[in-house]
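tl;dr need the bound structure. longer version: we got a ligand (flavin-adenine dinucleotide) that a collaborator sent over and nobodys looked at where it sits. i said id run it. heres the input, straight from their email, havent touched it
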Amino acid sequence: MTRIAIIGGGISGLTAAFTLEEQRRAGEIEYSLYESSPRLGGVLRTENVDGCLVEAGPDSFITEKPCAADLCRRLGLGDQLIGSIDADRKTYIFVRGRLIPMPDGLMFMVPTKILPTGFSPLFSWTTKLRMAKELLHPPRAGEGDESVASLVERHYGAEMVDRLADPLLSGVYGGEAASLSVRAVLPRFAEMERTYGSLGRAMLAAREKNPRPANKPAAPLFTSLKNGMQQLVETLVPRLNQASLITNSPVQSIQPRTGGWSVSAGLRSDHFNAVIVALPALAAAKLLSTCSPELSAELAAIGYSSSITVGLGYDRSVREALPPGFGFLVPRSEGKRLLAATFVHNKFPHRAPDDRALLRCFFAGSNAENIWQLSDDAMVAIVRNELQEILGVRAAPLFARVYKWKFAMAQYGVGHLERLARIELLRQQLPALTLAGNGYRGIGVPDCIRSGADAAKQVLTR
Ligand SMILES: Cc1cc2nc3c(=O)[nH]c(=O)nc-3n(C[C@H](O)[C@H](O)[C@H](O)COP(=O)(O)OP(=O)(O)OC[C@H]3O[C@@H](n4cnc5c(N)ncnc54)[C@H](O)[C@@H]3O)c2cc1C
């Protein structure tokens, strides 16, 4: 009987287990999933507070990447999938003391409609002129990696980095455009530049090539679950073999042994034929430090940033006073601590009763580290102060919840793809070991689901 260890009970590890489950039932394999904490799901966690669904970690997944919705459907959750209310989609950027809506037609930060961008107060005339000139941008000759900031600045100037690229990436990666790799984070942009030169022309060409059929409504940008992201975990876990799930068991080390691996958690050591390490790369580095210092060093070099989300519930008066739309982003140059806030009640149905406003505020990177040691009350006070400055909200929240995630968001630095190639070579020198999680080829929930499923299939193929 082949025995497989899965280390990590977040969505990556749980998906790996789910992928192995059929073979386990057929009596072909056994697996054990080790999770250090008492609960499964990792950063997927939803609380129901005063009738509001408060997401501690991810609030949704991007619809364009199908793995998460596919998994939900396989679990019988197809009728529980909900889309973002895109008719009300509007995101503001906080610039010089006021909220300015992102102009219509921006694809990430590439303008595809002249008038809304031309009249938007979000950009200076210098940047608008750069946007026009960008249409003549020549293709880039070099193949090498660079930061997102460097690519964006070359096309549109520094203001575009500060006001759009950086805030948009902070909201997803908790990281800075100046350090994130274009080839790993925005590979499509690198490709568009290589082929067309101008990103604007490339976007328009792509749209012309694949026009949306007139009778087909656009898919919502984001998808979530009626009862929150934890619904995925709560549906998936009962489908696994309960005796295989070992919680409260941090794995301290894994060591290659004849025919496989020895996995040590607490006082217990067990032998397995294969191991799936489904942890953030930083945690994986620690486990592998003695058996492969080189692999461990490469994994440890994948940066991670910490983040804090604060969920706040308000009454009807605040809901009515808030501007329409999904929320706002704050460029670092504005000197605030908050990086973003979502008006959750506007973004998704089923999140808050009609007489409640639900806000989700986000800190990441150095903004999160700088307040990490503060009490929850002190953090809520900071959030309230900034919401007052940004939105004019003075009312006391009906409830507040603070969630801290230490080193949970991977930062794909310049050269990330080359690092992954080195990691793959080093991994192959070890017996039956696979890696899954957000440190490698995408940090979003769908990417992690794909990585967990792929890792399990790799083990089964062996
Ligand atoms: C605040 C926040 C907001 C996010 N928002 C979104 C979003 O809206 N949409 C989206 O698509 N993605 C979002 N993401 C990213 C996405 O949620 C994560 O990348 C993904 O869920 C990570 O899943 P994972 O299983 O790889 O890792 P984790 O969820 O981190 O799970 C790893 C598990 O391993 C356990 N563990 C650690 N060390 C050990 C050990 N030694 N032994 C045993 N167990 C161990 C941990 O306790 C944890 O349960 C967000 C992330 C965060 C932090």
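gonna send this back to them w/ a short note. Residues 7-13, 34-37, 42-44, 57-61, 250-251, 278-280, 283, 307, 309, 405, 408-409, 437-438, 443-445, 448 surround flavin-adenine dinucleotide (CB under 6 Å).
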